[in-house]
Amino acid sequence: MDIVIVGSIGYDDISTPEDEGSDLLGGAATYAGLSAAFHRSDDISNNPKIGIVSAVGNDFSPSDQLKLESAGLNLAGVEMRDGDTFRWSGRYHGAMEDAETISTDVNVLENFNPEVPISWTTPEILFCANTHPATQVSVLDQCPSAAITALDSFMLWINSEKIKLSEALRKVDIAILNEEEICAIAEDKLLIRAIRSVQSGSALFGGESAGPGPRCIIVKRGSGGVIANFPFGLIALPAYPISNVVDPTGCGDSFAGAFLANISGREGALNDIEVIRNALIHATVTASFTLGALGCSSISKLERGQYHARVDRYRRIVGLT
């Protein structure tokens, strides 16, 4: 398997100043998977190379299963369990920088311990999407020979599971976080210093003596773009300027899926500034499309010509024609 994504598949009820909808297909693995699949569409075949590890309930729609499989995702790692699928309800206000969570029903994900299929335990890329750090550690331990490992997290785990999150961060090559998250982990509001202290391990539980953190950190800054620190140094890129933001849900996961898909198959990718810059460009543009419609509908229906036109415009904006 080229890319294995471990995370949630669920249904969302979303309200924004621009639109609202219920029972929308969502979840971190859904957004990341659809995004990665778009960038690996040449691999869509009877043997798709992007695998999803998750759990869904009896209420999971066959049409949604078909949507994911038709996009090129292998769902052999998705367990069907008795009960209801994970559900999240939230609303956005104003500039829609943050979501207000109305309710979260973990349902079949409660006490779910993901098991990566044996044939998938040596992937080129393993992405642990936002989930409990203990689960991320378990998944990483199941795939010790993964060539590149990455994770995402969020404030709940940073505030309540610092010890286990530190363990997970020490096991991965790449951490993909937002600015609030990386600064909270480091307990430092100066972004670059926060990034470097997490990488050195000094900001993690146990300090530098317990080992370094991830050698690569990508910080998503919303409308402020992205800053990434890799072994070769820093890269900073702006967000793609759009005038119609409908729904920010899943943007970070779409960003991660696009980035990882674009470093897949590139030897020495994490040490190659051109490969990383190109992957960040595609991640940024892909996330901009996710903003344009409720749920994952925009990314699941994205047309290739429309996408490449926006990539070309973005390259001109940043002076990389």
Provide a quick synopsis of the model.
By secondary structure, this protein is an alpha/beta fold. The protein has 11 helices and 13 strands.
Show the helix and strand layout.
Layout: E1 3-6, E2 10-15, E3 20-26, H1 28-39, E4 50-56, H2 62-70, E5 73-80, E6 86-92, E7 99-105, E8 125-128, H3 133-142, E9 148-151, H4 155-160, H5 162-171, E10 174-178, H6 179-186, H7 191-200, E11 216-220, E12 226-230, E13 233-237, H8 251-263, H9 273-290, H10 297-300, H11 304-317
Parallel strand pairs: 1-4, 1-8, 2-6, 4-5, 8-9, 9-10, 10-11
Antiparallel strand pairs: 2-3, 6-7, 11-12, 12-13
Helix pairs in contact: 1-8, 3-5, 6-7, 8-9, 9-11
Features:
321 residues, alpha/beta, UDP-N-acetylmuramoyl-L-alanine:D-glutamate ligase, 9-stranded mixed beta sheet, 4-stranded mixed beta sheet, 11 helices
Description:
The model has no long low-confidence stretch (mean pLDDT 95). This protein has helices at residues 28-39, 62-70, 133-142, 155-160, 162-171, 179-186, 191-200, 251-263, 273-290, 297-300, 304-317; strands spanning 3-6, 10-15, 20-26, 50-56, 73-80, 86-92, 99-105, 125-128, 148-151, 174-178, 216-220, 226-230, 233-237. The two termini are 33 Å apart. The protein has one domain (3-317): Ribokinase (UDP-N-acetylmuramoyl-L-alanine:D-glutamate ligase), CATH 3.40.1190.20. With 321 residues, it is of the alpha/beta class. The longest helix is centred in the C-terminal third of the chain and has 18 residues, at 273-290. It has eleven helices and 13 strands. A nine-stranded mixed beta sheet has the order 5-4-1-8-9-10-11-12-13, with helices on both faces.
